[in-house]
Amino acid sequence: MRKFMAVLLCMAVLVAGTVFYITSIWTQVPYAEDKNYLIIGSEIITDVEEPLIENGYILLSFNAIKKHIDPNAYWDEKLEKVVFTTKDKLITMKTDKLTAMVNQKPIDLNVPARVVDGIPYIPIEFLKDILNIHVELVDDTIAIIDFTKDTVVTGGLLKERGLKKDSTLFSPYVTKPLQEGDKVRVFQQVGDWYKVRTKNGIFGYIEKQYLSINEETVTEPLPQEAVIEPFKPEKGKINMVWEHVIKKNPDVSKLKAMEGLDIVSPTWFAVIDGKGNVSNNADMEYVKWAHKNGYKVWGLATNDFNPDITHEFLNNTDTREKIISQLLVYAKLYKLDGINIDFENIYEKDKNMLTQFMRELYPLCREQGLTLSMDVTFISGSSTWSKCYDRKALAEAVDYMAVMAYDQHWASSPKAGSVAQYKWVESNLKKILEQVPAEKVILGMPFYTRLWEEEKVDGKVKVTSKALSMSAIQKILDEKKPEIIWDEESGQRYAQYTEGGKIYKVWIEDAESIKLKSSLVNKYNLAGAAAWRRGFETEDIWPVIAKNLKKTDSSSQRAQAN
Fold first, then answer.
1. What pLDDT score was predicted for residue 437?
2. Is 63 exposed, middle or buried, given 0-12, 13-18 or 19+ CB atoms closer than 10 A?
3. Is the CB of residue 504 less than 8 Å from the CB of residue 496?
4. Is residue 473 assigned to a domain?
5. pTM, full prediction
6. Same domain flag for 66 and 174
Protein backbone atom coordinates (compact mmCIF):
# COMPACT_ATOMS: atom_id res chain seq x y z
CA MET A 1 0.00 0.00 0.00
CA ARG A 2 2.83 2.41 0.92
CA LYS A 3 4.56 1.75 -2.41
CA PHE A 4 1.30 2.35 -4.26
CA MET A 5 0.77 5.71 -2.48
CA ALA A 6 4.36 6.71 -3.22
CA VAL A 7 3.84 5.99 -6.90
CA LEU A 8 0.67 8.05 -6.93
CA LEU A 9 2.46 10.93 -5.23
CA CYS A 10 5.28 10.84 -7.76
CA MET A 11 2.77 10.83 -10.64
CA ALA A 12 0.96 13.79 -9.16
CA VAL A 13 4.23 15.73 -8.87
CA LEU A 14 5.12 14.89 -12.46
CA VAL A 15 1.69 15.85 -13.73
CA ALA A 16 1.76 19.10 -11.77
CA GLY A 17 5.19 19.86 -13.11
CA THR A 18 4.02 19.11 -16.63
CA VAL A 19 0.99 21.39 -16.27
CA PHE A 20 3.14 24.20 -14.84
CA TYR A 21 5.61 23.84 -17.70
CA ILE A 22 2.97 23.86 -20.42
CA THR A 23 1.05 26.85 -19.07
CA SER A 24 4.22 28.81 -18.41
CA ILE A 25 5.39 28.88 -22.03
CA TRP A 26 5.38 32.34 -23.69
CA THR A 27 2.34 31.83 -25.92
CA GLN A 28 1.43 35.24 -27.35
CA VAL A 29 2.80 37.42 -30.11
CA PRO A 30 1.03 40.63 -28.99
CA TYR A 31 1.02 42.70 -32.17
CA ALA A 32 0.96 41.72 -35.83
CA GLU A 33 3.61 43.32 -38.03
CA ASP A 34 1.20 44.44 -40.75
CA LYS A 35 -1.14 46.45 -38.48
CA ASN A 36 -1.12 49.63 -36.43
CA TYR A 37 -2.49 49.67 -32.90
CA LEU A 38 -4.01 52.19 -30.54
CA ILE A 39 -3.55 51.94 -26.78
CA ILE A 40 -5.37 54.31 -24.46
CA GLY A 41 -4.40 53.94 -20.83
CA SER A 42 -4.89 50.33 -19.80
CA GLU A 43 -6.65 49.08 -22.93
CA ILE A 44 -5.90 48.12 -26.51
CA ILE A 45 -8.63 49.87 -28.52
CA THR A 46 -10.20 47.56 -31.07
CA ASP A 47 -13.67 49.02 -31.66
CA VAL A 48 -12.54 51.82 -34.01
CA GLU A 49 -10.26 52.19 -37.01
CA GLU A 50 -6.55 51.58 -36.48
CA PRO A 51 -4.28 54.65 -36.51
CA LEU A 52 -2.41 55.93 -39.52
CA ILE A 53 1.34 56.29 -38.94
CA GLU A 54 3.13 58.56 -41.43
CA ASN A 55 6.80 59.55 -41.07
CA GLY A 56 6.57 59.17 -37.32
CA TYR A 57 3.33 61.17 -37.02
CA ILE A 58 0.15 59.63 -35.62
CA LEU A 59 -3.26 60.29 -37.16
CA LEU A 60 -6.24 58.93 -35.24
CA SER A 61 -9.62 58.39 -36.81
CA PHE A 62 -12.26 60.92 -35.80
CA ASN A 63 -14.31 58.01 -34.46
CA ALA A 64 -11.45 57.00 -32.13
CA ILE A 65 -11.06 60.55 -30.83
CA LYS A 66 -14.77 61.13 -30.28
CA LYS A 67 -15.42 57.78 -28.64
CA HIS A 68 -12.35 57.49 -26.44
CA ILE A 69 -10.73 60.92 -26.00
CA ASP A 70 -13.04 63.88 -26.61
CA PRO A 71 -16.81 63.26 -26.80
CA ASN A 72 -17.35 66.90 -27.80
CA ALA A 73 -15.28 66.64 -30.99
CA TYR A 74 -17.32 67.65 -34.04
CA TRP A 75 -16.96 66.65 -37.69
CA ASP A 76 -18.64 68.69 -40.43
CA GLU A 77 -18.91 66.11 -43.18
CA LYS A 78 -20.09 68.56 -45.82
CA LEU A 79 -17.19 70.96 -45.30
CA GLU A 80 -14.70 68.23 -44.27
CA LYS A 81 -13.85 70.25 -41.21
CA VAL A 82 -13.15 69.05 -37.66
CA VAL A 83 -13.78 71.19 -34.57
CA PHE A 84 -12.43 70.80 -31.04
CA THR A 85 -13.49 72.97 -28.13
CA THR A 86 -12.33 73.50 -24.58
CA LYS A 87 -13.23 76.29 -22.19
CA ASP A 88 -10.30 78.31 -23.53
CA LYS A 89 -9.67 77.04 -27.04
CA LEU A 90 -11.52 76.64 -30.33
CA ILE A 91 -9.57 74.53 -32.82
CA THR A 92 -10.63 73.92 -36.40
CA MET A 93 -8.92 71.93 -39.16
CA LYS A 94 -9.93 71.41 -42.74
CA THR A 95 -8.73 68.30 -44.50
CA ASP A 96 -5.59 68.47 -46.62
CA LYS A 97 -4.66 71.89 -45.18
CA LEU A 98 -1.35 72.42 -43.38
CA THR A 99 -2.90 75.18 -41.29
CA ALA A 100 -5.20 74.84 -38.30
CA MET A 101 -7.08 77.69 -36.67
CA VAL A 102 -6.71 78.12 -32.91
CA ASN A 103 -9.05 80.78 -31.54
CA GLN A 104 -9.36 82.02 -35.13
CA LYS A 105 -5.57 82.42 -35.53
CA PRO A 106 -3.56 80.28 -38.02
CA ILE A 107 -1.12 77.65 -36.72
CA ASP A 108 1.06 75.48 -38.99
CA LEU A 109 0.68 71.68 -38.96
CA ASN A 110 3.32 69.05 -39.68
CA VAL A 111 0.73 66.81 -41.31
CA PRO A 112 -2.82 67.70 -42.34
CA ALA A 113 -6.09 66.10 -41.39
CA ARG A 114 -7.35 63.90 -44.20
CA VAL A 115 -10.16 61.60 -45.27
CA VAL A 116 -9.21 58.00 -46.13
CA ASP A 117 -11.90 55.64 -47.42
CA GLY A 118 -14.55 58.02 -46.12
CA ILE A 119 -13.04 58.18 -42.61
CA PRO A 120 -11.54 61.45 -41.30
CA TYR A 121 -8.12 61.14 -39.64
CA ILE A 122 -6.68 63.83 -37.36
CA PRO A 123 -3.01 64.52 -36.42
CA ILE A 124 -3.19 63.84 -32.70
CA GLU A 125 0.17 65.25 -31.55
CA PHE A 126 -1.01 68.75 -32.44
CA LEU A 127 -3.92 68.33 -30.03
CA LYS A 128 -2.07 66.77 -27.11
CA ASP A 129 -1.82 69.94 -25.00
CA ILE A 130 -5.38 70.98 -25.81
CA LEU A 131 -6.86 67.58 -24.96
CA ASN A 132 -4.47 67.05 -22.02
CA ILE A 133 -3.04 63.79 -23.32
CA HIS A 134 0.45 62.28 -23.60
CA VAL A 135 1.21 60.74 -26.99
CA GLU A 136 3.91 58.18 -27.72
CA LEU A 137 4.77 56.09 -30.77
CA VAL A 138 6.33 52.65 -30.20
CA ASP A 139 8.04 50.64 -32.96
CA ASP A 140 6.37 52.86 -35.60
CA THR A 141 3.17 50.81 -35.23
CA ILE A 142 1.77 51.37 -31.73
CA ALA A 143 0.22 54.68 -30.69
CA ILE A 144 -0.02 55.03 -26.92
CA ILE A 145 -2.28 57.68 -25.40
CA ASP A 146 -2.36 58.52 -21.69
CA PHE A 147 -4.49 61.23 -20.08
CA THR A 148 -2.29 63.70 -18.24
CA LYS A 149 -4.88 64.15 -15.51
CA ASP A 150 -4.49 60.51 -14.46
CA THR A 151 -2.29 59.42 -11.59
CA VAL A 152 0.82 57.66 -12.91
CA VAL A 153 1.96 54.64 -10.90
CA THR A 154 5.11 52.82 -11.96
CA GLY A 155 6.89 49.80 -10.59
CA GLY A 156 10.35 48.29 -10.87
CA LEU A 157 10.90 44.53 -11.21
CA LEU A 158 12.65 43.01 -8.20
CA LYS A 159 13.81 40.01 -10.21
CA GLU A 160 13.65 38.61 -13.73
CA ARG A 161 10.03 37.75 -14.47
CA GLY A 162 7.58 37.56 -17.37
CA LEU A 163 4.03 38.93 -17.46
CA LYS A 164 1.03 36.58 -17.32
CA LYS A 165 -2.07 36.76 -19.45
CA ASP A 166 -4.34 36.59 -16.40
CA SER A 167 -3.94 37.06 -12.66
CA THR A 168 -3.50 33.35 -11.96
CA LEU A 169 -0.42 31.25 -11.31
CA PHE A 170 -1.00 28.83 -14.19
CA SER A 171 -1.91 31.46 -16.78
CA PRO A 172 0.40 31.54 -19.84
CA TYR A 173 3.08 34.19 -20.14
CA VAL A 174 2.55 37.02 -22.64
CA THR A 175 6.17 38.24 -22.56
CA LYS A 176 9.61 36.81 -22.38
CA PRO A 177 11.17 37.43 -18.96
CA LEU A 178 11.64 41.12 -18.16
CA GLN A 179 14.93 42.09 -16.53
CA GLU A 180 15.40 43.07 -12.92
CA GLY A 181 14.96 46.83 -12.58
CA ASP A 182 12.77 47.19 -15.71
CA LYS A 183 9.98 49.74 -15.26
CA VAL A 184 6.31 49.07 -16.00
CA ARG A 185 3.19 51.24 -15.79
CA VAL A 186 0.83 49.94 -13.07
CA PHE A 187 -2.92 50.26 -13.62
CA GLN A 188 -4.75 48.20 -11.04
CA GLN A 189 -4.38 45.61 -8.33
CA VAL A 190 -6.21 42.29 -8.65
CA GLY A 191 -5.76 40.30 -5.45
CA ASP A 192 -2.05 39.60 -5.14
CA TRP A 193 -1.37 40.70 -8.73
CA TYR A 194 -0.88 43.97 -10.62
CA LYS A 195 -2.09 44.71 -14.14
CA VAL A 196 0.80 46.49 -15.87
CA ARG A 197 1.96 47.81 -19.24
CA THR A 198 5.52 47.54 -20.51
CA LYS A 199 7.32 50.40 -22.24
CA ASN A 200 6.61 48.78 -25.61
CA GLY A 201 2.88 48.52 -24.95
CA ILE A 202 2.40 44.92 -23.81
CA PHE A 203 -0.15 44.29 -21.06
CA GLY A 204 -0.03 41.53 -18.50
CA TYR A 205 -0.15 40.58 -14.83
CA ILE A 206 2.66 40.16 -12.32
CA GLU A 207 2.59 39.09 -8.68
CA LYS A 208 3.00 41.86 -6.11
CA GLN A 209 6.03 40.15 -4.64
CA TYR A 210 8.02 40.73 -7.83
CA LEU A 211 7.24 44.43 -8.19
CA SER A 212 8.35 47.46 -6.21
CA ILE A 213 5.93 50.39 -6.41
CA ASN A 214 8.37 53.24 -6.32
CA GLU A 215 6.71 56.16 -8.06
CA GLU A 216 3.25 57.71 -7.90
CA THR A 217 2.74 61.08 -9.56
CA VAL A 218 0.08 63.06 -11.34
CA THR A 219 1.22 64.28 -14.72
CA GLU A 220 0.17 67.90 -14.96
CA PRO A 221 -0.86 69.44 -18.28
CA LEU A 222 1.32 72.18 -19.70
CA PRO A 223 0.81 75.61 -18.10
CA GLN A 224 -2.35 77.24 -19.32
CA GLU A 225 -3.24 80.89 -19.63
CA ALA A 226 -4.54 82.61 -16.51
CA VAL A 227 -8.04 81.51 -15.58
CA ILE A 228 -10.63 84.06 -16.67
CA GLU A 229 -13.41 84.36 -14.13
CA PRO A 230 -16.90 85.42 -15.24
CA PHE A 231 -18.41 88.58 -13.82
CA LYS A 232 -19.46 88.43 -10.19
CA PRO A 233 -20.89 91.41 -8.29
CA GLU A 234 -18.89 92.86 -5.44
CA LYS A 235 -21.80 92.21 -3.11
CA GLY A 236 -24.62 89.72 -3.09
CA LYS A 237 -26.16 88.14 -6.18
CA ILE A 238 -26.36 89.21 -9.82
CA ASN A 239 -29.17 91.67 -10.54
CA MET A 240 -29.84 92.00 -14.25
CA VAL A 241 -32.53 93.47 -16.47
CA TRP A 242 -33.19 93.07 -20.18
CA GLU A 243 -33.60 96.22 -22.27
CA HIS A 244 -36.08 95.72 -25.10
CA VAL A 245 -34.81 97.47 -28.22
CA ILE A 246 -36.60 97.00 -31.52
CA LYS A 247 -35.01 99.72 -33.66
CA LYS A 248 -34.64 102.78 -31.48
CA ASN A 249 -32.64 102.82 -28.27
CA PRO A 250 -34.01 104.63 -25.21
CA ASP A 251 -33.12 108.23 -24.50
CA VAL A 252 -30.55 107.71 -21.75
CA SER A 253 -31.10 111.23 -20.41
CA LYS A 254 -34.55 110.11 -19.27
CA LEU A 255 -33.49 106.85 -17.62
CA LYS A 256 -33.55 106.72 -13.84
CA ALA A 257 -31.06 104.93 -11.61
CA MET A 258 -32.05 101.40 -10.59
CA GLU A 259 -31.06 100.44 -7.05
CA GLY A 260 -28.90 97.33 -6.78
CA LEU A 261 -28.70 96.71 -10.54
CA ASP A 262 -25.53 95.12 -11.94
CA ILE A 263 -26.23 94.39 -15.60
CA VAL A 264 -28.33 95.69 -18.47
CA SER A 265 -28.82 93.41 -21.47
CA PRO A 266 -30.14 95.29 -24.52
CA THR A 267 -31.64 93.29 -27.40
CA TRP A 268 -29.25 94.66 -30.02
CA PHE A 269 -28.22 91.77 -32.28
CA ALA A 270 -30.12 89.23 -34.39
CA VAL A 271 -29.11 86.54 -36.89
CA ILE A 272 -31.43 87.55 -39.70
CA ASP A 273 -30.82 84.83 -42.29
CA GLY A 274 -29.42 81.36 -42.79
CA LYS A 275 -26.18 82.78 -44.21
CA GLY A 276 -25.25 84.12 -40.78
CA ASN A 277 -25.70 87.85 -41.27
CA VAL A 278 -26.17 89.65 -37.94
CA SER A 279 -28.16 92.88 -37.63
CA ASN A 280 -26.84 95.51 -35.24
CA ASN A 281 -28.82 98.09 -33.22
CA ALA A 282 -26.10 98.82 -30.66
CA ASP A 283 -25.72 102.33 -29.29
CA MET A 284 -22.46 103.67 -27.84
CA GLU A 285 -24.31 106.35 -25.88
CA TYR A 286 -26.26 103.64 -24.07
CA VAL A 287 -23.03 101.82 -23.18
CA LYS A 288 -21.47 105.04 -21.86
CA TRP A 289 -24.59 105.72 -19.75
CA ALA A 290 -24.54 102.18 -18.36
CA HIS A 291 -20.86 102.22 -17.48
CA LYS A 292 -21.16 105.66 -15.93
CA ASN A 293 -23.88 104.29 -13.63
CA GLY A 294 -21.86 101.19 -12.75
CA TYR A 295 -23.81 98.74 -14.92
CA LYS A 296 -22.19 96.05 -17.05
CA VAL A 297 -23.56 95.69 -20.59
CA TRP A 298 -24.29 92.23 -21.95
CA GLY A 299 -25.40 92.61 -25.56
CA LEU A 300 -28.25 90.23 -26.37
CA ALA A 301 -28.30 88.27 -29.64
CA THR A 302 -31.37 86.46 -30.95
CA ASN A 303 -31.95 84.01 -33.79
CA ASP A 304 -34.89 86.14 -34.94
CA PHE A 305 -36.96 83.32 -33.38
CA ASN A 306 -37.10 81.68 -36.80
CA PRO A 307 -36.60 77.88 -36.69
CA ASP A 308 -35.81 77.49 -40.40
CA ILE A 309 -33.16 80.19 -40.45
CA THR A 310 -31.73 78.75 -37.26
CA HIS A 311 -31.59 75.23 -38.71
CA GLU A 312 -29.63 76.51 -41.69
CA PHE A 313 -26.99 78.49 -39.80
CA LEU A 314 -26.54 76.02 -36.94
CA ASN A 315 -25.75 73.17 -39.30
CA ASN A 316 -22.91 74.90 -41.12
CA THR A 317 -19.56 75.23 -39.37
CA ASP A 318 -18.43 78.17 -41.47
CA THR A 319 -21.69 80.03 -40.90
CA ARG A 320 -21.47 79.52 -37.14
CA GLU A 321 -17.95 80.91 -37.30
CA LYS A 322 -19.19 83.92 -39.27
CA ILE A 323 -21.85 84.71 -36.67
CA ILE A 324 -19.41 84.35 -33.80
CA SER A 325 -16.88 86.62 -35.50
CA GLN A 326 -19.49 89.35 -35.98
CA LEU A 327 -20.62 89.17 -32.35
CA LEU A 328 -17.03 89.43 -31.13
CA VAL A 329 -16.31 92.40 -33.39
CA TYR A 330 -19.43 94.20 -32.14
CA ALA A 331 -18.52 93.39 -28.54
CA LYS A 332 -15.09 94.95 -29.00
CA LEU A 333 -16.40 97.92 -30.98
CA TYR A 334 -19.02 98.85 -28.39
CA LYS A 335 -16.90 97.91 -25.34
CA LEU A 336 -19.39 95.30 -24.14
CA ASP A 337 -18.81 93.30 -20.98
CA GLY A 338 -20.66 90.20 -22.06
CA ILE A 339 -22.90 88.50 -24.60
CA ASN A 340 -26.33 87.08 -23.83
CA ILE A 341 -27.61 84.50 -26.32
CA ASP A 342 -31.39 84.31 -26.62
CA PHE A 343 -32.06 81.67 -29.27
CA GLU A 344 -35.65 80.43 -29.16
CA ASN A 345 -38.15 78.51 -31.34
CA ILE A 346 -35.59 75.92 -32.42
CA TYR A 347 -36.34 72.49 -33.83
CA GLU A 348 -35.59 69.62 -31.48
CA LYS A 349 -33.47 68.02 -34.22
CA ASP A 350 -31.06 70.97 -33.91
CA LYS A 351 -30.54 70.47 -30.18
CA ASN A 352 -26.96 69.19 -30.47
CA MET A 353 -26.00 71.86 -32.99
CA LEU A 354 -27.22 74.59 -30.64
CA THR A 355 -24.91 73.16 -27.98
CA GLN A 356 -22.06 73.02 -30.51
CA PHE A 357 -22.58 76.70 -31.37
CA MET A 358 -22.24 77.64 -27.70
CA ARG A 359 -19.15 75.44 -27.30
CA GLU A 360 -17.52 77.30 -30.18
CA LEU A 361 -18.50 80.74 -28.88
CA TYR A 362 -17.47 80.17 -25.26
CA PRO A 363 -13.64 80.02 -25.54
CA LEU A 364 -13.55 83.08 -27.80
CA CYS A 365 -15.66 85.06 -25.35
CA ARG A 366 -13.31 84.06 -22.53
CA GLU A 367 -10.28 85.11 -24.57
CA GLN A 368 -11.87 88.51 -25.13
CA GLY A 369 -12.84 88.86 -21.45
CA LEU A 370 -16.56 88.61 -22.14
CA THR A 371 -19.00 86.90 -19.80
CA LEU A 372 -21.22 84.52 -21.80
CA SER A 373 -24.79 83.81 -20.74
CA MET A 374 -27.66 82.04 -22.42
CA ASP A 375 -31.41 82.21 -21.99
CA VAL A 376 -33.40 78.98 -21.79
CA THR A 377 -36.98 78.06 -21.00
CA PHE A 378 -38.14 75.84 -18.19
CA ILE A 379 -38.20 72.07 -18.80
CA SER A 380 -41.73 71.48 -20.01
CA GLY A 381 -43.05 68.31 -21.56
CA SER A 382 -45.96 70.19 -23.11
CA SER A 383 -43.82 72.75 -24.93
CA THR A 384 -42.21 71.67 -28.20
CA TRP A 385 -39.85 74.61 -28.12
CA SER A 386 -38.41 73.73 -24.70
CA LYS A 387 -36.94 70.46 -26.00
CA CYS A 388 -34.17 72.11 -28.05
CA TYR A 389 -32.06 72.88 -24.97
CA ASP A 390 -29.60 70.31 -23.66
CA ARG A 391 -29.36 72.23 -20.41
CA LYS A 392 -26.78 69.99 -18.80
CA ALA A 393 -24.41 70.22 -21.78
CA LEU A 394 -25.08 73.93 -22.28
CA ALA A 395 -24.21 74.61 -18.65
CA GLU A 396 -20.64 73.54 -19.44
CA ALA A 397 -20.43 76.02 -22.35
CA VAL A 398 -21.63 79.19 -20.61
CA ASP A 399 -20.81 81.24 -17.55
CA TYR A 400 -24.47 81.73 -16.66
CA MET A 401 -27.81 80.30 -17.73
CA ALA A 402 -30.75 82.67 -17.47
CA VAL A 403 -33.94 80.66 -16.97
CA MET A 404 -36.96 82.46 -18.38
CA ALA A 405 -39.35 81.64 -15.55
CA TYR A 406 -42.42 83.19 -17.11
CA ASP A 407 -45.07 82.67 -19.80
CA GLN A 408 -46.59 79.83 -17.80
CA HIS A 409 -49.74 81.07 -19.51
CA TRP A 410 -48.54 82.63 -22.75
CA ALA A 411 -50.07 85.18 -25.13
CA SER A 412 -52.22 82.71 -27.06
CA SER A 413 -52.89 80.35 -24.17
CA PRO A 414 -56.34 78.71 -24.44
CA LYS A 415 -56.75 79.23 -20.70
CA ALA A 416 -56.37 82.35 -18.60
CA GLY A 417 -53.79 82.17 -15.84
CA SER A 418 -50.76 83.64 -14.17
CA VAL A 419 -47.68 84.56 -16.18
CA ALA A 420 -45.57 83.00 -13.43
CA GLN A 421 -47.14 81.38 -10.36
CA TYR A 422 -44.74 81.23 -7.44
CA LYS A 423 -45.30 77.48 -6.93
CA TRP A 424 -44.91 76.82 -10.65
CA VAL A 425 -41.66 78.78 -10.70
CA GLU A 426 -40.23 76.95 -7.69
CA SER A 427 -41.29 73.52 -8.92
CA ASN A 428 -39.68 74.01 -12.33
CA LEU A 429 -36.61 75.64 -10.84
CA LYS A 430 -35.95 72.43 -8.91
CA LYS A 431 -35.99 70.50 -12.21
CA ILE A 432 -33.47 72.89 -13.73
CA LEU A 433 -31.17 72.48 -10.74
CA GLU A 434 -31.03 68.73 -11.36
CA GLN A 435 -29.15 69.54 -14.58
CA VAL A 436 -27.49 72.92 -14.04
CA PRO A 437 -25.26 73.99 -11.11
CA ALA A 438 -27.04 76.55 -8.93
CA GLU A 439 -24.09 78.94 -9.14
CA LYS A 440 -24.70 79.27 -12.89
CA VAL A 441 -28.48 79.83 -12.76
CA ILE A 442 -29.98 83.30 -13.11
CA LEU A 443 -33.71 83.32 -12.39
CA GLY A 444 -35.69 85.26 -14.99
CA MET A 445 -38.71 87.15 -13.59
CA PRO A 446 -41.53 89.00 -15.39
CA PHE A 447 -42.14 92.72 -14.98
CA TYR A 448 -45.27 92.34 -17.12
CA THR A 449 -48.78 91.11 -16.47
CA ARG A 450 -51.36 89.72 -18.85
CA LEU A 451 -54.88 91.09 -18.84
CA TRP A 452 -57.12 88.22 -19.89
CA GLU A 453 -60.41 88.63 -21.70
CA GLU A 454 -62.98 85.81 -21.77
CA GLU A 455 -65.97 85.99 -24.12
CA LYS A 456 -68.56 83.39 -25.00
CA VAL A 457 -68.73 82.79 -28.74
CA ASP A 458 -71.05 80.10 -30.11
CA GLY A 459 -71.28 78.54 -26.69
CA LYS A 460 -67.53 78.35 -26.22
CA VAL A 461 -65.25 80.57 -24.18
CA LYS A 462 -62.85 82.55 -26.36
CA VAL A 463 -59.71 83.63 -24.50
CA THR A 464 -57.44 86.51 -25.53
CA SER A 465 -54.81 88.49 -23.68
CA LYS A 466 -52.44 91.41 -23.85
CA ALA A 467 -49.23 92.01 -21.94
CA LEU A 468 -49.17 95.21 -19.92
CA SER A 469 -46.68 96.95 -17.67
CA MET A 470 -47.18 97.06 -13.91
CA SER A 471 -48.27 100.69 -14.01
CA ALA A 472 -50.73 100.06 -16.88
CA ILE A 473 -52.39 97.25 -14.92
CA GLN A 474 -52.57 99.40 -11.81
CA LYS A 475 -54.24 102.17 -13.81
CA ILE A 476 -56.91 99.72 -14.99
CA LEU A 477 -57.48 98.48 -11.45
CA ASP A 478 -57.78 102.04 -10.15
CA GLU A 479 -60.37 102.72 -12.83
CA LYS A 480 -62.44 99.50 -12.60
CA LYS A 481 -62.09 99.07 -8.82
CA PRO A 482 -62.58 95.28 -8.77
CA GLU A 483 -62.22 93.22 -5.61
CA ILE A 484 -58.57 92.21 -5.22
CA ILE A 485 -57.71 89.04 -3.31
CA TRP A 486 -54.46 87.28 -2.45
CA ASP A 487 -53.93 84.01 -4.36
CA GLU A 488 -51.71 81.74 -2.27
CA GLU A 489 -50.81 79.34 -5.07
CA SER A 490 -49.67 82.02 -7.48
CA GLY A 491 -48.13 84.25 -4.83
CA GLN A 492 -49.94 87.16 -6.45
CA ARG A 493 -52.92 89.41 -6.02
CA TYR A 494 -55.82 88.44 -8.26
CA ALA A 495 -58.62 90.61 -9.67
CA GLN A 496 -61.63 89.96 -11.88
CA TYR A 497 -64.34 92.18 -13.30
CA THR A 498 -67.07 92.07 -15.96
CA GLU A 499 -67.61 94.66 -18.65
CA GLY A 500 -69.64 94.54 -21.87
CA GLY A 501 -70.53 90.89 -21.34
CA LYS A 502 -66.86 89.94 -21.10
CA ILE A 503 -64.93 88.72 -18.07
CA TYR A 504 -61.53 90.24 -17.40
CA LYS A 505 -58.97 88.46 -15.20
CA VAL A 506 -55.53 89.47 -14.00
CA TRP A 507 -52.85 87.88 -11.84
CA ILE A 508 -50.88 90.91 -10.76
CA GLU A 509 -47.11 91.20 -10.86
CA ASP A 510 -46.05 93.79 -8.31
CA ALA A 511 -43.63 94.35 -5.45
CA GLU A 512 -45.13 91.50 -3.41
CA SER A 513 -44.96 88.88 -6.17
CA ILE A 514 -41.45 89.93 -7.21
CA LYS A 515 -40.35 89.82 -3.57
CA LEU A 516 -41.45 86.18 -3.36
CA LYS A 517 -39.86 85.13 -6.64
CA SER A 518 -36.56 86.91 -6.03
CA SER A 519 -36.36 85.26 -2.60
CA LEU A 520 -35.83 81.95 -4.44
CA VAL A 521 -32.38 83.18 -5.46
CA ASN A 522 -31.13 82.96 -1.88
CA LYS A 523 -33.26 79.96 -0.98
CA TYR A 524 -31.54 77.86 -3.68
CA ASN A 525 -28.25 79.82 -3.71
CA LEU A 526 -28.59 80.82 -7.37
CA ALA A 527 -26.22 83.16 -9.20
CA GLY A 528 -28.84 85.88 -9.30
CA ALA A 529 -31.99 87.17 -10.96
CA ALA A 530 -32.92 88.90 -14.21
CA ALA A 531 -36.13 90.62 -15.27
CA TRP A 532 -37.97 91.11 -18.55
CA ARG A 533 -38.09 93.98 -19.19
CA ARG A 534 -36.87 97.41 -18.08
CA GLY A 535 -39.60 100.04 -18.27
CA PHE A 536 -42.41 97.65 -17.34
CA GLU A 537 -41.67 97.88 -13.61
CA THR A 538 -42.89 100.39 -11.05
CA GLU A 539 -40.34 102.35 -9.02
CA ASP A 540 -40.94 100.34 -5.86
CA ILE A 541 -39.62 97.16 -7.51
CA TRP A 542 -35.91 97.94 -7.41
CA PRO A 543 -35.61 98.38 -3.62
CA VAL A 544 -37.44 95.05 -3.16
CA ILE A 545 -35.08 93.15 -5.46
CA ALA A 546 -32.04 94.91 -4.01
CA LYS A 547 -33.06 93.92 -0.49
CA ASN A 548 -33.31 90.25 -1.48
CA LEU A 549 -30.18 90.13 -3.64
CA LYS A 550 -27.86 92.66 -2.06
CA LYS A 551 -28.79 93.55 1.50
CA THR A 552 -29.78 90.19 2.96
CA ASP A 553 -26.58 88.34 3.74
CA SER A 554 -27.00 85.59 6.32
CA SER A 555 -29.38 82.66 6.04
CA SER A 556 -31.19 83.77 9.20
CA GLN A 557 -31.70 87.23 7.73
CA ARG A 558 -32.98 85.72 4.50
CA ALA A 559 -35.45 83.53 6.34
CA GLN A 560 -36.68 86.49 8.37
CA ALA A 561 -36.93 88.78 5.35
CA ASN A 562 -38.94 86.30 3.31
1. 98
2. middle
3. yes
4. no
5. 0.91
6. no
